[in-house]
Amino acid sequence: MTADTGPTRRGLALLAALAPAAGAHAQEAPAPGARRNPADVANGGVLGLIAGGIDGTYIRIASDLAAELDDGDRLRLLPILGKGSLQNIADLMYLRGVDMAIVQSDVLAFALRQRLYPNIAQRIHYIAKLYDEEIHLLATGDVTEIGQLEGRTVNVDVRGSGTAMTASVLLDLLGVGARRRMRRRTWRWSSCGAARSPP
Questions:
Q1: What is the pTM of this model?
Q2: I want to staple 109 with a disulfide (CB 3.0 to 4.6 A). Which of 5, 135, 167, 186 is the partner?
Q3: Which of 67, 134, 63 is CA-nearest to residue 104?
């Protein structure tokens, strides 16, 4: 498996769990003219794709992939709500029914460098880069440069999310000692286009 391990690069990757040993789930071929088991028909070609939260972009990407790649009985993707890139890696490795995962590339690189899961490089496969992501920093009007966040509270999304990990890595690299708050993003947009977080 290859992945960009640079700490400031952030893209979106599609991963898959490596198939079990040949024969582990092998089924006997039906005799000529015999009816196939309805359960085998329903489950044949079905892959679970874990993505993001219900209000996020990743679950929409998973839904789009499912719609575009649907091939009748041969291939069907089932989008699954996820709980962040790091949890998606764990779910891909251990959770039944999860065959693929959408994961931020910097989170994957972190998991590989830190060896967070046993034999991770051998157990998952990097399928494709989906796209590069931009990082946006929203602040009050009195903040004009990132260094002014020193000592201030910065919301970096929920613990374990890819956003929280990316934000923490960037703040550390830039030497900004902001207090990190782990809280789900609940932004409202005012008529002038400025983002405001509810109290």
A1: 0.68
A2: 5
A3: 134
Per-residue pLDDT of 32-72, as tens digits, reads: 667 878 887 777 889 999 998 888 889 999 999 999 998 87
82 neighbors 50 (Cβ within 8 angstroms): yes
Per residue in 140-160, pLDDT (tens digit) is 889 999 899 999 988 888 777
The DSSP code sequence of 75-139 is -EEEEE--S-HHHHHHHHHHSTT--EEEEEHHHHHHHHHHT-STTHHHHEEEEEEEEE-------
Q: Determine the 3-state secondary structure of 149 from DSSP.
A: helix
* Torsions phi, psi for 87 (to 5 deg): -65, -35
Q: Which residue has the higher pLDDT, 89 or 4?
A: 89
Asked if 102 and 14 count as a contact pair (C-beta separation under 8 A), the reply is: yes
The sign one gets for the Cα dihedral 93, 52, 97, 100 is: negative
Helix residue ranges per DSSP H, 13-72: 38-43, 57-69
